[in-house]
Specification:
Number of helices of chain A: 11
CATH topology of the largest domain in chain A: Rossmann fold
Shape of chain B: elongated
Number of domains of chain B: 2
Oligomer: heterodimer
Strand order of the largest sheet of chain A: 6-7-8-3-9-10
Number of helices of chain B: 15
Largest interface: A-B, 28 and 21 residues
Structural class of chain A: alpha/beta
CATH class of the largest domain in chain A: Alpha Beta
Strand order of the largest sheet of chain B: 2-1-3-4
Largest sheet of chain B: 4 strands, mixed
Order of helices and strands of chain A: EEEHEEHEHHHEHEHEEHEHEEHEH
Strand content of chain A: 25-35%
Largest sheet of chain A: 6 strands, mixed
CATH superfamily of the largest domain in chain A: P-loop containing nucleotide triphosphate hydrolases
Order of helices and strands of chain B: HHEHEHEHEHHHHHHHHHH
Helix content of chain A: 25-40%
CATH architecture of the largest domain in chain A: 3-Layer(aba) Sandwich
Distance between the termini of chain A: 39 Å
Radius of gyration of chain B: 27 Å
Number of strands of chain A: 14
Number of strands of chain B: 4
Chain lengths: ~300, ~400
């Protein structure tokens, strides 16, 4: 089956500073693909090139067989774009907003009313459709923001941080809805710096840092990259530097770094079994006031690959 | 292409109509300002007291008739003062020194020549610094020329009919052909009056056209800020649709604004702006230029606040140098030259000329041409700016 989205060698620079470097990936029909990276990693620039808002310096984008550069109208007709901000008119009602974008994107006049109602049902806002958008809660705004991208029945839905600033209940509702869309065969490109969202929604994930994809694969494949090592977060009270030196010499510990005043991070094979040895190693040097063992996850993978946490 | 454009325009129109402030700026303020200026500075009279020099090298009945009628005219009482000067050279010196605003020169033998059916030419000296005095002097001379032509025709016809030359003068006057007496009507300006309600009406229309059309482009930058512009551009529409959709509405509302100012001036003051087709064409060209200039600002501005500020500055600078706020002829020469770069100057001058002369569309071809050239240049630069920025 042909991929819904194929992008190759995408690059974009501003004044000699590379924002995106040689990015390429594919998204198949019914697949959810995640771009995971901290703020400033180049996710939004990449998306802007994919939806035609920015011209790439190099590279190609093909959506549903249509080349974005050669036939932008055909390619854009297959894309639903959900921007990071609530890109709708606050002084219009939800229904008026959807009706406007239906007409703008060329839905036949006779289909507009029906499609607006369908989308309102889909995002669970039929009962608030005639209220002005500026009276909506943050979660409702996010939902209708997604709904506006679905009006023209796109093959590919591109979401740029779609859950920023919403409460957990609304977030769950949004993620449930996205999973239903994927189950129905829509391709999804999802960017976020929320690890748990990407892990939940996406089939494949690209880790983006400094404008490049540093790793790509399923969650399992990415976690394998750190070799199954656990992460141990210690909080110590005492001579922390000496404790870190001692811990570096402990068998099984591959990495020991001081991350804050009294905080130490260890990467260790079978970390949970090593915990008694860790505590005895620092005994007399520093008191262990807190300890957390984190099994291999995307956070650890990200840390391993980029040297920083997602929320840095 | 057309349906998305109409969709954007419909939303823009709805937004603007819902916004009471926009309505006030488009309709109420320009009409109120034009009315206040018109009332405060006098409705019908020219804004200057004109002193016109009179050089009578003829000493005959025609110059005497002119002097008599001017002195007797209630319309020109207190407005036009005649000052006798002995020669054309001294009249020119007085004009150069600013002592007089214009001069009428009757050459020697003028009355005799006209009486003999040989016609005659009256000279007029004018200065760019005192255009209204020049208009008054020319209007007087136009009237004299009509009389001269009528008198010449009557004398020649009488001679051809066999009336002896010695009896022609008496024969013509006895039979009611144009006599030497000159009758100045209440309205000394051919075709209408140079009226302050027209002058300031035109000025306010020219000024507020910038604000009205500028609001649409400010809206474009607000849409960029709130993300709706990117959402539109990411959809299957041409990148120019949002810009064109807003431009169309801004242009249309600005046309409504200038036309309402025009009509209200006519209704409130009974003013005559001149040939309606020519006035409309000139206003259309002005609004086109204002649309292009504000579009250019929007294409280069980073924020709506920045665009707002720049449009405000450009509007007032163009209004000041272009004679929308103070009459052009009161500005020093150098500023009058700078005024030629503003659309307001061409619009105000064109409209004032139409009101003062009763001329038609052809008489404002140059102002319309210049305004269209300004529009084309600004549209070109705006397109380049949008391609580099907003649509880049």
């Amino acid at each position: 089956m042909n991929d819904t989205l194929t992008c190759e060698n995408l690059s974009k620079s501003y004044g000699g500073v590379a924002a995106v470097r040689d990015v390429g990936f594919t998204v198949a029909p019914g697949e959810a693909y995640g771009l995971l990276g901290p703020n400033g990693a180049g996710k939004t620039t990449t998306i802007s090139m994919l939806v035609g808002l920015l011209k790439p310096d190099t590279g190609t984008v093909v959506v549903g067989g249509a080349d974005l550069a050669a036939d932008p109208m055909a390619a854009k007709a297959k894309i639903g774009y959900v921007p990071q901000e609530i890109a709708l008119y606050p002084d219009l009602t939800g229904r008026e907003n959807l009706r406007f974008f239906c007409r703008l994107f060329g839905l036949p006049r006779r289909e507009v009313r029906g499609r607006v109602e369908e989308v309102l049902d889909l995002v669970g806002l039929a009962d608030r459709a005639d209220a002005k958008l500026d009276t909506y809660s943050g979660g409702m705004k996010r939902r209708i923001n997604i709904g506006a991208a679905l009006l023209h029945r796109p093959e590919l839905l591109i979401l740029d941080e779609p859950t920023v600033g919403v409460d957990p209940q609304s977030r769950k509702s949004i993620l449930d809805g996205l999973e239903r869309l994927v189950a129905d065969g829509m391709a999804l490109l999802y960017t976020s710096h929320y690890m748990e969202e990407v892990e939940r929604v996406c089939d494949r994930i690209a880790i983006v840092d400094h404008g490049s994809i540093v790793a790509e694969g399923t969650r399992h494949e990415l976690v394998e990259l750190v070799g199954g090592a656990d992460r141990i977060e210690l909080t110590l009270d005492g001579d922390v530097d000496t404790a870190v030196d001692k811990l570096r010499g402990l068998g099984g510990v591959t990495e020991a770094v001081r991350t804050a005043a009294g905080s130490v991070r260890l990467i260790a094979e079978g970390g949970r079994y090593l915990l008694p040895s860790v505590i005895s190693t620092v005994d007399g040097i520093a008191a262990v006031t807190a300890v957390e063992v984190v099994e291999p996850d995307l956070e650890a993978t990200f840390l391993h690959l980029t040297g920083s946490t997602l929320r840095d | 292409m057309l349906r998305p454009l109409l969709t954007v325009s419909a939303l823009e129109l709805r937004t603007r109509v819902r916004d009471r402030t926009a309505l006030i700026i488009a309709i109420i303020v320009p009409v109120a300002m034009a009315t206040l200026f018109g009332v405060a500075l006098g409705g019908d009279d020219p804004p200057l007291r004109a002193t016109v020099g009179m050089v009578d090298l003829d000493g005959g009945e025609f110059p005497a008739g002119v002097r008599r009628e001017v002195m007797a005219s209630t319309e020109l009482d207190g407005v036009l003062t005649l000052r006798d000067l002995p020669s054309r050279e001294q009249a020119q010196s007085a004009l150069d020194a600013g002592d007089i605003g214009a001069a009428i020169v009757f050459p020697a033998g003028f009355s005799a020549s006209v009486g003999a059916g040989e016609g005659g030419r009256v000279g007029v000296l004018t200065s760019a610094d005192t255009p209204l005095a020049g208009v008054v002097a020319n209007a007087v001379v136009d009237r004299i020329s009509s009389l001269v032509r009528a008198r010449t025709l009557a004398v020649r016809a009488s001679l051809d009919a066999g009336v002896p030359a010695a009896e022609v003068k008496e024969f013509v006057e006895r039979n009611g052909a144009a006599g030497p007496a000159l009758t100045l009507e209440n309205d000394p300006m051919a075709g209408g009056r140079v009226d302050l309600s027209v002058y300031y009406g035109a000025g306010m229309a020219a000024l507020f056209a910038f604000f009205v059309v500028g609001a649409s482009f400010r809206g474009l930058l607000i849409e960029r800020k709130q993300g709706t512009l990117d959402r539109m551009r990411a959809g299957p529409i041409h990148g120019w649709v949002p810009i064109a959709g807003k431009a169309v509405v801004g242009f249309a509302l600005a046309m409504v604004s200038v036309c309402v100012t025009w009509v209200s001036s006519v209704l409130i003051f009974g003013s005559t702006w001149g040939d309606p087709v020519a006035v409309f064409a000139l206003l259309l060209a002005h609004v086109l230029a204002a649309t292009a200039i504000t579009m250019l600002v929007a294409s280069r501005a980073r924020t709506d606040a920045q665009a707002d500020g720049v449009i405000m500055v450009i509007s007032f600078v163009a209004a000041f140098f272009g004679g929308s706020l103070v009459p052009l002829y009161t500005l020093p020469d150098v500023l009058q030259k700078i005024a030629l770069f503003t659309p307001n100057a061409w619009t105000t001058t064109g409209l004032t000329g139409l009101a003062g002369s009763g001329a038609g569309l052809a008489s404002v071809a140059v102002p319309i041409g210049v305004l269209c050239a300004i529009a084309v240049a600004a549209f070109g630069l705006a397109a380049a700016g949008f391609r580099k920025g907003l649509l880049g």
